[in-house]
Amino acid sequence: MVRFSQVGLRYPDPVRGAAAGERETLRDLSFTLPQGSFTWLTGPSGAGKTSLLRMMQLSLRPTRGEVEVLGMPLSRARRADLPRLRRRIGAVFQEFRLLPYLTAFDNVALPLRLAGRPEAGLRPDVTEMLRWVGLDGREEALPPQLSGGEQQRVAIARAVVTRPSLLLADEPTGNLDAAQARRLMMLLEEMNRLGATVVVATHSRDLIAQHPGHVMALEGGRIVSLDPWPHAAEAGPETAAALLAGEVDDGSALEDGSGDAEEAPGPGDAVEAGRARRGVWPGPRPPEADLG
Ligand SMILES: Nc1ncnc2c1ncn2[C@@H]1O[C@H](COP(=O)(O)OP(=O)(O)OP(=O)(O)O)[C@@H](O)[C@H]1O
User: Fold this and answer.
1) Where do Acidic residues bias regions lie (predicted)?
2) What are the pLDDT digits (tens) for 133-146?
């Protein structure tokens, strides 16, 4: 779940610092995205889409108001809480931030290694994920040896391989051809059906028309329209099943201090097993090790 209450964001002036009187980039943002929801974020260039995604990713703090991500109000988060919270967020931004001296395989494996996944267990997941984004055979390539679209697909694989609870994507189809874009959308929708909250920023009306979802439109840093949300349990039987299985985070896990409770295997695994039988990538299994 992502909740913004009266949020404003003002970038510091590079010369004068956080000068009073500077215009806010984001203003008066108040909304709730239920866990398991899919939201298109749209609006003209400069409207603030990337800035909003960066706040959801916890890389930008609001100047005012409250941001709550995956059950954690940031005003109450301790510094030590943030790395664990960030590990539950997958993000693909327009600059891919791949490590140029690591192979495609190692870039995708990195978040699993950081989370303490044993080496023996991660290879099949990373290989499968690279196959899913059409990069089988390119595992050993370094980012500078890959095209822009291939690098974007490595970044997508890296964002998704941990099966994050919150998945953020900024123009994720920008460098992809039509077939790859369709495959990526299948992947995002699949992650969403498995319980992730997904937010995708795009200028593409075609993309939104082909994959109807809830739309948040920004203009000049304000929300100019936001579709109302159905209750999470009405979002679909599989989302509801995942909710009941505790696979989907309702925010309580972090609040009561049992931060990794949602990682425990449960009846939701049956949903995933069904997907695996149908050839749908179900994501790696939850890590055995505690992420904290
Ligand atoms: N680091 C920064 N420092 C100062 N201003 C910034 C910074 N990043 C973005 N801005 C400003 O914030 C505003 C919103 O930018 P943002 O990138 O969030 O918009 P956007 O809707 O994602 O645009 P686009 O569709 O072109 O990617 C712009 O006016 C931009 O100049």
Assistant:
1) 247-263
2) 889 999 999 999 99
Residue nearest to atom 31 of ligand 1 (CA): 46
Considering only residues 212 and 254, tell me which one the structure prediction assigns the higher pLDDT: 212
**Interval between CA 253 and ligand 1 midpoint (Å):** 33
Chain-centroid distance of CA 155 in Å reads 12
* Both structure tokens of 168: 């953020």
ipTM value for the complex: 0.97
Rg of the chain over Cα atoms, rounded to whole angstroms, equals 19
219: β partners: 222
Q: Are 174 and 152 in contact (CB under 8 A)?
A: yes
Domains of the chain listed by start with CATH number? 2-88+164-277 (3.40.50.300)
Question: Nearest-CA neighbor of 88 among 154, 5, 155, 160?
Answer: 160
**pLDDT tens-digit profile of 62-77?**
999 999 999 899 988 8
- Write the DSSP string, 71-132: TEEGGG--TTHHHHHHTTEEEE-SS----TTS-HHHHHHHHHHHTT--HHHHHHHHHHHHHH
Q: Tell me if 38 sits within 8 A of 239, measured CB to CB.
A: no
Distance 49 CA to ligand 1 centre (A): 8
Model confidence at 17, in pLDDT bands (50, 70, 90)?
low
pTM: 0.78
pLDDT beyond 90 at 84 = no
d(CA 34, CA 38) in angstroms, rounded, equals 9
Residue nearest to atom 13 of ligand 1 (CA): 46
CA–CA distances in Å: residue 122 to residues 91, 150, 269, 284? 20, 21, 18, 8
